[in-house]
Amino acid sequence: MRTLARPSLATATSFGLLLLAAALARADAPAPQSALSPEVARRIDAAAAEVLAKTGAPSASVAIVRDGRIAYLRAYGDARLEPRQPAQPSTRYAIGSISKQFTAAALLLLEQDGRLSLDDTVERWVPGLTRGRDITIRQLLSHTAGFQDYWPQDYMFPRMREPASPEFIMETWARKPLDYEPGTKWQYSNTGYVVAARVVEKAGGEPFFAFLRRRIFEPLGMDTVIDFDREPHAAGVAEAYTQYALGPSRVAEASAPGWLFGAGQLAMTAEDLARWNVSLIRRELMARASYLALETDARLANGAGTQYGLGIDVETENQRRKLGHGGAVNGFTSDNLVYPDDGAAIVVLTNQDASPAPAQLSGRLAEILLEDVRPEDAAATARARAIFEGLQQGRLDRAQFTGNANHYFSSHAVADFQASLAPLGAPAEFRQTRRWLRGGMTGRSYEAKFADRKLRVWTYEMPDGRLEQFQVAVRD
Questions:
Q1: By the number of CB atoms within 10 A of the CB, which of 52, 114, 301, 440 ranks highest?
Q2: Does an H or E element contain 399, and which?
Q3: CATH no. for residue 420?
Q4: What is the pLDDT of residues 79-115, one digit of tens each?
Q5: Across-strand partners of 74?
Q6: How far is 384 from 446, CA to CA, in rounded Å?
Q7: Of 378, 370, 328, 330, residue with least CA distance to 346
Q8: pTM
Q9: Do both 432 and 332 map to the same domain?
């Protein structure tokens, strides 16, 4: 995962899980600003309960953005285990490497101000680093500079119990030989972001966190943000936990001050991170060119894409533009997803390190939320499943198909569909995995799960709703 300390480390449930969801959900959660339907809210709560039960994460704080507004806030589980303190939407969590996009935004704002260019060399602002004349600020932010990562481990190494400074980190790791020629590879490096934050201070003329507060947090009303690097035990911060193998949750030790500078030093509520996501969707803080730079896939010297912009993952998922990043520091793991063209975003913050809970839960919530955002996909999925199950019985409603498709479904074809699919029984799960456009039609791909195999189903739908294609094959 692309996180601060851990780049190695980006349906209805059973009745019992529904009860657990009711127990975990805070009754005093604030009313959403743009309410989701009760059914969608119920599915979100059930998914959170299931993921926490399976992973053992002590708590999760969730914020949902829909239609460019915060639509749902809820906390689950315990912010502290002993003595027990239930998590609340007002609880702060460290967000780890999700902080990197704020570092990138700071530099973009300084570029807007005419104080620097992202194509300036590192040497201009922080002299004396290895190959500083050959590395740009843009390469620092896109992880293509070549500086060795100072924290690739999935744990806190002993030196981190002693305070550090940006100069110490740069002296120790950014004056080593580069791991590769600048611009030729993508390799996650927290070191590059320490250098980048120091550039913010040099060009901005004030301490890094003060710049973030004045130019980003205050304008967006993000008033819960703190410098977790300096205040890991500040009031309102969830207790940090770690887990060894499958053992119990134990209180995690915080790193000494100075180790998170620029690379992952922020803590905040899920609601405040959602406010940032809203600003990304609305593009209300920076100039349009700055957002384009932030969200553009960085290219290597050989032309290959990296699926990374400036401090943020840049992907296309099911024909949706997706911006995201995970985060991890000692005792915390998080995930943040933004679907800017759909006006949707998902924040999941947890207080256990190396936990799969944030990624698992954000994935589940994306399926629920985006199905609700684009209801025609849910209807198409139900239709495709009904056709599939009809073919298992040798039945086909030919009125739903074009002449070409009806020609494809000869009597032999329908017989083969029935003979090969009927023994599988009803699918345990049937879900859409992709959506695209081609030839004036809407293409959709589905995954049908059975006890011992998975099948791929894909269709083409005409503008009038009839299907030009419906095919089935084995899925890897």
A1: 52
A2: none
A3: 3.10.450.590
A4: 999 999 999 999 999 999 999 999 999 999 999 999 9
A5: 62
A6: 8
A7: 370
A8: 0.83
A9: no
